[in-house]
Amino acid sequence: MLILERQERLLDILRERGSWDLESLGEALGVSASTVRRDLDSLEERGLVERTHGGAVYRGPRPHPVSFDERKDQQVESKQAIGKYAAAMVEPGMTVLLDGGSTVFYAAEQITARPLQVVTNSLTIATLFANDEQVDLILIGGALYPRTGVMVGPIATGCLNDLHADLLLFSVAGIFDDDAFNLNIDQAEVERVMLKQAARSVMLMDSTKFGRKSLARVCHGEDVELIVTDGGLSEKWRRRFGDRLMVVEEF
Q: Which residues are paired to 136 by β-bridges?
């Protein structure tokens, strides 16, 4: 692979993920860490990336925001497997809090426990339970965030502050080092309140999101009881999170 081709591939990876660590970039490109560093230096001089401790962040032109339907169609088999495991954690009589993540959508589709209380800020997920007579559905109000179908803002966080859930299932845009991030500040704030109001919290993330950094920090990895992901996760991340990580295989 020519240098320019490799750098364009490197840029494509960072554009898609937002950020990634040197080791993972080297594995993806099949080159050494020193080669990745040289390529990143070149891209940083062009104002396209920013070097960080142990990795890099994309700083070039941004594509249009990805809609919920587009995200739902990515990594489908992995998200279904993660969702199946998470759905099995839901027991009859629980109050379950669900955010608007695409992986959470696949979990919601597979929840069979009844009767149930479902609390969500997602119009799409609420629709799954709207006609179920055994589900007590509470839809959180607020300002509708474009292209995602989720409610955010002070009305949403105010509603959540008055509620309690037995279990929270949520997903984020990425994990970098030990912190979880989301793309939008308002969405991150809603998820932080959700974490406070739930007795147990489970983060659902496909393996492509590990090593990815985004705009707004949601929480530290230790703030959640369990992280559920797929078998594509590298050994480095498996060692990092240890017992707080559940790796499931695709269907």
A: 117
Cβ atoms of 141 and 152 closer than 8 Å: no
* pLDDT per position as a tens digit, 106-119: 999 999 999 999 99
Which residues, 6 or more positions from 53, have their beta carbon under 8 angstroms from its beta carbon? none
- Copy the structure tokens of residue 62: 């941004």
Question: CB burial class (10 A; 0-12, 13-18, 19+) of residue 212?
Answer: buried
Distance of CA 139 to the CA centre of its chain: 21
Give the pTM: 0.76
Distance from CA of residue 70 to its chain's centroid?
14
- Full set of structural domains in the chain with CATH: 3-58 (1.10.10.10), 68-248 (3.40.50.1360)
Q: How many CA atoms lie within 13 A of 183 on its CB side?
A: 18
Kind and range of the H or E run holding 176: strand 174-176
Per-residue model confidence as pLDDT tens digits over 41-53: 999 888 888 888 8
